[in-house]
C-alpha cells in the first residue's frame, strides 16, 4: 500500500468544527479568475481554518501571497498530475489547522516560489517584508548543480541554522514534508524508501523535539507504511477489527474503553469538576509498539482516554478522583505538568483499572496544554511579536540558553556543534545520531546555571557543553560533591563541577571518545586528536596528563596536559637534545627528572619526546626502528614527577601522606585516591620539588608513613581527577 493510500488516525478536533480533509485538498480545482475584493475559492478552506484560531486576522496578505504563488506556479504540474499550486495550498492548510499565525501561512504559500519559479527573494522582501522573506529563504533548497551530493545535508544545515533564529522555518518544512509523504505513492519504490528514511531519521525527531505531535504521528504512520509494509498491514487489520466491534463512533457497549470513559465522565460530574472526556485512538505506530511490548493487544490498547479541563489545578483534582474511584496502576503515573518535557509537552499520565479488570491509560491536561501538545511551537503563534516584528531575535540570558521556548537547549547545542562539522558527510551522520537521542536530562552547575544534555551523557559531555574547547583541559569532576571520573554517566538533577587544569595547552585522551555522547564533545575531541597524533602515543593509549604532565623545555616547547600548579611553583627541569631548535617534551608516561638516564625520540611535527631509559616506551620505539636522540640535563633546580603510593586503608592515611610530602618541601600539583580494593588503597601524586636530589628522601619519607608498603615512580598512565 502506498503512502498516499494510508489512513492514519486524525488528531482530535474541536467539536462543532466541520472536518476538512487535508488529503483531498490536493485535488481542489482552481476556479479561474475571481474579483479582487475576495479570497479565491481555492483558499477558502485555509481562510476558514485560520479564522478559527485567529478571528481578527487580516487575510489580505494571504490573498496577495496566493495570487503571486498561483501566477508563478501556473503551468507547473506535480508528478501526480495535479496543478502545482495545490501543494503550497495543502501545506498552508496543514499549518492553518494547527493554529499558525498569518506570517507563517503567507510564507508557506510562497515557500516554493523562489526555488521553482522566477520569483526572487528581493521580490518577496519588497512585497511581503523581511520576516516572510527570511522564512521562504530558510526552506528554499540548495541547488544540486552547485553542491552535488552534498546538497541535501547542506540544505538541512541551512534550514537548521535558520530555525535557530526563527522556529517557523522548520514548521513550514515539516508541513511540506507531510504533504509530500501523503502523495509519495506516485514515486518509484526506491525513491519512496529513500525519502521515508530521511523523514524517519531527521524530520520525525525534529517534529518530536519541537512538540508538533499532530505532524509527527502522521509522519510516523506514513513512514511505517513504506518501510515496513507487512507490519503495517497487520496493524491496520488489527485496528480495523477493533473498529468493527464498535458502531463506528467508538461508543459501543462492548468497547471496554468506552465503558471506562463513561464511568470517568460520571465520576467527574459527581465531583463537580467540569471536564471533557474523549477517547483518543492510537495511531498505527503506537498500536504496533504496544503490541511488540505486550505481545498480545488488549481491547483498551487501541486508544487512551483524554480528559480536558480548564485550569492546572483541575488536572490534579481529576487525578485525585481517578485514583480514589478506580484502582490506579501506580507504575504508569507520570507528572509532565510539574516537570514538562523538553519539547514543551505537559500532561498527567496515569492508568486505571475498570470494573471488568480492563486497564485504560488516561491523559489529563488543560485545553491550552492540549493545543501545545498537538501543535508544539506552532501553537505559540508569533513568538517574536514582542520584538515588534523587526526580526526573530530573542534575548540571551547569562548562561547562553535562549529564554524563549522556541530556542531550546538541544537546538542551541546543535547549532554550536554544526559549526565544527564543515564536512557534509560528518554533519549528516552526526545529525542523525544526535537526533536519535530522544530524551534529555538537566544537570546543575555549581555556579547556579544548568546544562541540558541527552540521556546517557557523561562528565565529558558536560565539560564540553559548559566550556567548549576549554574542556580539553579537564582533569576530573565532582558529581553531587564527590570526586568522579570523566566517564561517569550523569542522571537528571545531578550537580556537576568540572575541574580544569590551568595549562591551556592540555588535550584529551582517546578514551574520552568512549564516554562522549554529544556531537559537540565527539567533534572537539576527534579534532584535537587528529591535530596532535603524537600526544596519543603513550604505551597504554592513555592521556599524557593522566600519568603526569609533560614538562616544557627551553621555554618554547609545547607542554602536554598539566594539572593546575600552585602559586609559587618554579620552572620545571630542562632537557637539552642533540637537535637544534627542536621542541622538547618530557614524556608523561615515565616523568623523567634529573639525574635520570634518559633518551629521546622524534615524533610527528619534529618534536622530541624524552623518556627514562627503563620506560617501556623506549623498547617499543626501538622495536619499530625509531632512532634515539641524545638527551642531557641542563643545570636546573625544580623538577616535576609522578609518584604512586600503595598502602593499606586506615583513618587519616591521606592526611599523614600529604604531611610527609609537605615536610619534604614538595608541592602537590594533583592527586588521586582510588577506591579501596581488598583493603588496599592506591594514591597517585604529581609533585614538584625545588631540587631533584631530594626525590629519594621524599620517597623514603612517604614509605615511612604507617600503612604505606610501596612508593614508586609512575611507569604507565594513571587517571587523575
What does this molecule look like?
It is a single chain. This protein has 721 residues and is of the alpha+beta class. The strands form five sheets. Strands 1, 2, 3, 4, 5 and 6 form a six-stranded mixed sheet that branches. The longest helix is centred in the N-terminal third of the chain and has 21 residues, at 189-209. The chain is globular. The relative contact order is 0.06.
Q: Briefly note the structural class of the backbone.
A: alpha+beta
Principal-axis shape:
globular
Overall mean pLDDT score?
A: 78
User: Roughly what percent helix?
Assistant: 25-40%
Compact summary:
By secondary structure, this protein is α+β, with helices and mostly antiparallel strands. It has 25 helices and 21 strands. Helix content is 38%, strand content 15%.
List the helices and strands and how they pair.
Layout: H1 22-25, H2 44-53, H3 60-73, H4 86-97, H5 102-109, H6 113-116, H7 121-128, H8 130-139, H9 144-147, H10 151-165, H11 168-182, H12 189-209, H13 213-227, H14 229-244, H15 256-270, E1 276-281, H16 284-294, E2 303-309, H17 312-325, E3 327-328, E4 334-335, E5 348-353, E6 359-366, H18 367-375, H19 409-418, H20 424-435, E7 440-445, E8 450-454, H21 459-467, E9 474-479, E10 482-484, E11 495-500, H22 519-531, E12 575-577, E13 584-586, E14 598-602, E15 608-612, H23 616-623, E16 628-629, E17 631-633, E18 639-648, H24 653-663, E19 667-673, E20 680-689, H25 695-703, E21 708-713
Parallel strand pairs: 2-6, 7-11, 13-15
Antiparallel strand pairs: 1-2, 3-5, 4-5, 5-6, 7-8, 9-10, 9-11, 12-17, 14-15, 14-16, 18-20, 18-21, 19-20
Amino acid at each position: 500500500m502506498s503512502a498516499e493510500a494510508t489512513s492514519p488516525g486524525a488528531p482530535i478536533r474541536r467539536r462543532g468544527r466541520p472536518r476538512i480533509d487535508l488529503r483531498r485538498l490536493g485535488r481542489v480545482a482552481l476556479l479561474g479568475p475571481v474579483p479582487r475584493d475576495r479570497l479565491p475559492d481555492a483558499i477558502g478552506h485555509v481562510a476558514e481554518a485560520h479564522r478559527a484560531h485567529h478571528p481578527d486576522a487580516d487575510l489580505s496578505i494571504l490573498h496577495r501571497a496566493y495570487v503571486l504563488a498561483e501566477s508563478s506556479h501556473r503551468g507547473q504540474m506535480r508528478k501526480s498530475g495535479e496543478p502545482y499550486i495545490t501543494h503550497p495550498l495543502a501545506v498552508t492548510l496543514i499549518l492553518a489547522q494547527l493554529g499558525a499565525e498569518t506570517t507563517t501561512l503567507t510564507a508557506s504559500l510562497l515557500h516554493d516560489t523562489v526555488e521553482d519559479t522566477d520569483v526572487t527573494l528581493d521580490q518577496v522582501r519588497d512585497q511581503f517584508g523581511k520576516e516572510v522573506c527570511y522564512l521562504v529563504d530558510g526552506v528554499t533548497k540548495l541547488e544540486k548543480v552547485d553542491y552535488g551530493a552534498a546538497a541535501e545535508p547542506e540544505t538541512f544545515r541551512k534550514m537548521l541554522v535558520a530555525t535557530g533564529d526563527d522556529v517557523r522555518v522548520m514548521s513550514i518544512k515539516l508541513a511540506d514534508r507531510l504533504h509530500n509523504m501523503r502523495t509519495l505513492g506516485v514515486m518509484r519504490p526506491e525513491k519512496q524508501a529513500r525519502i521515508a528514511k530521511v523523514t524517519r531519521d531527521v524530520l520525525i525527531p525534529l517534529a518530536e523535539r519541537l512538540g508538533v505531535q499532530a505532524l509527527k504521528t502522521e509522519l510516523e504512520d506514513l513512514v511505517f507504511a513504506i518501510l515496513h509494509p507487512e507490519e503495517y498491514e497487520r496493524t491496520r487489520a488489527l485496528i480495523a477489527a477493533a473498529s468493527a466491534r464498535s458502531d463506528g463512533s467508538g461508543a459501543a457497549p462492548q468497547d471496554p474503553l468506552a465503558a471506562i470513559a463513561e464511568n470517568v465522565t460520571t465520576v467527574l460530574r459527581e465531583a463537580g469538576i467540569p471536564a471533557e472526556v474523549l477517547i483518543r485512538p492510537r495511531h498505527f505506530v503506537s498500536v504496533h509498539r504496544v503490541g511488540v511490548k505486550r505481545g498480545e493487544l488488549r481491547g483498551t490498547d487501541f486508544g487512551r482516554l483524554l480528559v480536558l479541563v480548564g485550569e492546572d489545578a483541575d488536572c490534579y483534582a481529576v487525578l485525585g478522583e481517578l485514583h480514589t474511584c478506580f484502582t490506579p496502576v501506580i507504575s504508569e503515573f507520570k507528572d509532565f505538568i510539574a516537570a514538562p518535557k523538553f519539547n514543551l509537552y505537559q500532561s498527567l499520565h496515569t492508568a486505571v483499572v475498570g470494573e471488568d479488570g480492563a486497564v485504560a491509560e488516561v491523559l489529563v491536561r488543560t485545553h491550552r496544554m492540549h493545543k501545545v501538545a498537538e501543535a508544539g511551537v506552532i501553537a505559540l503563534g508569533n513568538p517574536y511579536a514582542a520584538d515588534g516584528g523587526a526580526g526573530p531575535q530573542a534575548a540571551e540570558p547569562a548562561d547562553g540558553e535562549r529564554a524563549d521556548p522556541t530556542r531550546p537547549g538541544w537546538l542551541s547545542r546543535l547549532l554550536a556543534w554544526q559549526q565544527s562539522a564543515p564536512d557534509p558527510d560528518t554533519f549528516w551522520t552526526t545529525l542523525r545520531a544526535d537526533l536519535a537521542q530522544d530524551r534529555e536530562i538537566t544537570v546543575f552547575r555549581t555556579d547556579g546555571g544548568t546544562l541540558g544534555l541527552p540521556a546517557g551523557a557523561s562528565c565529558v559531555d558536560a565539560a564540553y557543553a559548559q566550556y567548549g574547547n576549554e574542556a580539553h583541559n579537564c582533569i576530573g569532576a565532582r558529581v553531587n560533591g564527590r570526586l568522579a571520573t570523566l566517564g561517569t554517566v550523569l542522571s537528571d538533577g545531578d550537580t556537576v563541577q568540572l575541574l580544569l587544569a590551568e595549562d591551556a595547552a592540555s588535550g584529551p585522551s582517546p578514551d574520552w571518545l568512549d564516554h562522549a555522547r554529544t556531537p559537540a564533545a565527539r567533534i572537539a575531541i576527534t579534532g584535537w586528536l587528529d591535530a596532535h597524533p603524537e600526544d596519543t602515543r603513550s604505551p597504554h593509549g592513555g592521556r599524557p596528563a593522566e600519568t603526569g604532565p609533560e614538562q616544557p623545555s627551553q621555554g618554547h616547547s609545547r607542554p602536554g596536559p598539566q594539572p593546575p600548579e600552585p602559586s609559587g611553583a618554579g620552572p620545571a627541569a630542562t632537557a637539552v637534545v642533540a637537535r637544534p631548535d627542536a621542541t622538547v617534551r618530557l614524556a608523561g608516561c615515565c616523568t623523567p627528572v634529573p639525574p635520570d638516564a634518559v633518551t629521546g625520540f622524534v615524533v610527528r611535527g619534529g618534536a622530541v619526546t624524552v623518556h627514562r631509559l627503563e620506560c617501556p616506551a623506549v623498547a617499543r620505539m626501538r622495536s619499530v626502528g625509531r632512532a634515539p636522540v641524545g638527551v642531557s640535563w641542563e643545570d636546573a633546580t625544580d623538577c616535576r614527577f609522578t609518584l604512586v603510593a600503595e598502602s593499606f586503608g586506615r583513618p587519616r592515611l591521606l592526611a599523614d601522606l600529604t604531611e610527609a610530602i609537605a615536610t619534604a618541601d614538595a608541592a602537590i600539583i594533583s592527586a588521586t585516591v582510588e577506591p579501596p580494593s581488598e583493603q588496599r588503597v592506591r594514591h597517585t601524586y604529581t609533585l614538584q620539588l625545588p631540587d631533584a636530589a631530594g626525590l629519594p628522601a621524599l620517597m623514603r619519607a612517604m614509605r615511612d608513613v604507617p600503612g604505606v608498603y610501596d612508593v614508586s615512580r609512575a611507569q604507565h598512565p594513571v587517571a587523575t581527577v
